[in-house]
Request: fold
Amino acid sequence: MNDSISTALILIPALPLAAAILIAILGPKLLREYSHVPLIIALIGSFLASLFLLSQVLDDQQIKSPAGFEHVVNLWTWANVDNAIVLPRSPLGESPYSLTDEGPRNFRIDVALRADALTSMMLCMVTFISTLVAVYASGYMHGDRGYWRFFSYIGLFVFSMAMLVSVSNFVLLFVFWEAVGACSYLLIGFWYEKPEAAAAGKKAFLVNRVGDFGFAFGLFLLWTTYGSLNFHDTLSDGSVDSEKVAAAYEQALENRLVTSPSDQPPTAPSKDTSPAEAETAEPTLIRGVLGQSRIRANDYRTGGIALAICLLLLVGACGKSAQFPLHVWLPDAMEGPTPVSALIHAATMVTAGVYMVTRCSPLFFASPEAQLVVACIGGFTALFAGLIALTQWDLKRVMAYSTLSQLGYMFLALGVGTFVGVTAGMFHLFTHAFFKALLFLGAGSVMHAMHHVIDMREFSGLRKVLPWTHRTFLVGCLALAGVFPLAGFWSKDGILGAVHDKIHAFEHEIEHRREHDEHGGEHRQAATLGQETFVVARLAETTAHSPFADWNDATLQRYWWTYTLLYYSGIFTAFLTAFYTFRAYCLTFWGELKIPAAAHHAHESPPVMIAPLMVLALCAIVVGAAFLDPMNLGHSYFADFLTHAPSLASPVVEATRPLHPEFHLSVAGVSTIVALAGIGLALFMYLGERTEARWVQRVSDLEGANQWTGFQWIGRLPQIGWIGWTTGLLRRSGLGFLSTLVGLFLGLVWLIIAIPVLLVQYFTPYRLSQNKFYIDELYNAFIVWPLRILAAVLAWLDRWVLDGLVNLVGYVPRVAGGLMREMHSGLVQFYALVMVIGVVILIVAQVFAR
Amino acid sequence: MSELSLLNNTLLVGAILFALGLIGFITRRNMIVMFLCAEMMLQGVSVSLVAWGRYHNDWGGQMLVVFIIAVAACEAAIALALVLLLAAKSGGLDAMHWQSLREDGVAPFVDRAVPEEVQDDPIWPVLTRSGIEPAHDPEEDLHRSRV
Reply:
């Protein structure tokens, strides 16, 4: 049975790769307009293999092991450096399963694939969406010059993404992290003749490098801290055979009990584990960073180093998932073909950051500060992108900012730092993939009909022209807005519910402490918050007390109000989401029929494009509710399934899992009301005449302020009677300089007043949103231009200083050769003579040297 | 005659042959003569090889000489062909004609014995009228012009 898992695991990435290579070789000459066929076949194969993998994982993980289910296939060892690091002696953790990591470690990179709940879920989603997108693209890209190139890139992308989610090693994760970035670059710049597309590709690539820089540093720190970069446990000889690993683990536990750390002098054990002995002895256990043995004992560093690791990993995640400081590339990436936007920049690749943070949950759970940062970045991005999306005119950009916003939601959920939060984040990732792919493909269908015009001011009232696009798009909008009972409702509600739970837990603890202070009790011992709601008894050895028991009151208070703020901003963002989604919907499909001149024969897209839309629309309706327990809506089978992934089976994660999950009717009610209000407002403003919308735009643009910033009123001044009369009188009486002085004074006052007003003109709420809060301009002013100037200076130095030095070195032989030039006469006899003289000199030297 | 003095004398002969060849190669400008001089140097070396072979009671030296002679024959064929081509190209066998290996900007070597052509009075060829036997120098029948 395990062999079939391995086969499926290898087949899933291998099929798209094979298709990509095949298309790259045969595409230009042989396949041409049939280039999509091998890819679609391969993707269907991958999807079936993923489903099979999912069912196998589902079967296998029924045999409940204490630290989740995983199946690792070690393909080969990429690199192995003996004794690359010697880890210092570290104290054992509190758990009876704790082991120490001390001793020499080999730096080995195993090319290992893994199957667990998280991986199989991601694989199913990625292959399913990419199959549909490939089918859609075969219609959308029809007749493009780079038809085969497109499908080859898509195959390469699916390969990279499938590897990204299924590798079991941080180095390989990084490799495929870069690979999806490279594919994204290739596909954004697919129409490379278009300067904007080329620039957008470059921007995406460079911004992602910033994130990858942080990620790489995170990996260095992980390596020096944990002495391994594998997710899974291995033996020191590289074997991953689960029985042997388990035996080694038992052995290590036994040794630990024999040589208890307290009665050993700290230097003694490190001597007898010299590398030479380690080779001859039985292979020992090398604990992976997310290995079951480490997860079971929760042997994770806390404090500063954990915070540093998490923040560095988060920088990487922010780059790939386009979170706040590094979000600028995603909206520009809409220059790529629309299927790419749907596949890469909405549904799959951008979720890599979310996947990575989820995978590293045990690391993040070890550092509540890092979780707070994750939540803040997520919550802020959600709100920020939602505000920008309100005023964008480009249909695809609205969707791009909504993607940012939804990714922000996912990060917010991951930052909540409870089991419910993490699974809600993953669930939102899952449902979002369907409805956002649907919305993007719908936007692509509109674009297809409108001849690549995407500005919503250019067209309107398309519901009759594009009936099926309209219907499916409406489903996507409802799902995105979070309307009951579509997918987006359940997942978004799950996230808000998780934040709500978190706040509730903080409130509970604060309340508890106050009661204890009143009764004069010692709160630390009795602070067993959540005995009712949290499963403490299940893992009593690691979490015998409340997660916040050793926090001081100020910290608790700080966390409480931060999460409260995030909760309300999340609800407000839900309102914004509903509003901008339906604004885009109304602008596109309602109102008078208006079609841009470029699209003289607008028509509905071909069936090959509509069919994927329908499938996705169906998914967007059912995929949220399908995983719920009809008896208890708070209980999700999705979360149950993910429990078995080792990262989420960790006792600290498990401890935050409510025994009786509840469906928060209050949260759901609030979010539904908010969503309906947003939809209602959008419909009110954008259906019909849209006068209200224009009025709101004028108000938020502070239109009245404009009249104070114009220059016209200066010209009108002399016409005002008494001013002209006074200045005339002054001039006649020889006091003309007085009026000049007054004029200068007034000019000064005007400047002082006008500069802020002029600035206000650019910083009205409307313009801030329209211009994306000037983030791009800020980057330009503070990063791009200084770097350009630096580059120019360095180019000058390179050209005139470094090249000059090099040329100088090259000049020396020329000068030396110039001295001998005259001897080179071309006379054969002269050469012979010189040779003879040389030989004579040699002989003489030889003779006299003796 | 002792073996040593035999070696000495033979080596002396070889050295004389080599030195003659060397001097000839450096001083003569006729390409065929230069080639012959080069062959002479080769033979000088061959003689000394034979001498050493005899001295050491070893056939190696003799054997090498056989090889040298074979190689020299090939070389001669090629060299003579080259000389023939060069002579056809320049109309003479003077090695001084071939100076194009010299560095750019270095003045060519000019033989002082050759009088400079005077631009002022070019000697135009005069064609003999047809039907009249051309006058010929009876001197030329007595000897061939030097190459």
About this structure: Chain B has a mean pLDDT of 86. The CA atoms of residues 21 and 37 of chain B lie 4 Å apart. Chain B is about 60% helix and 0% strand.
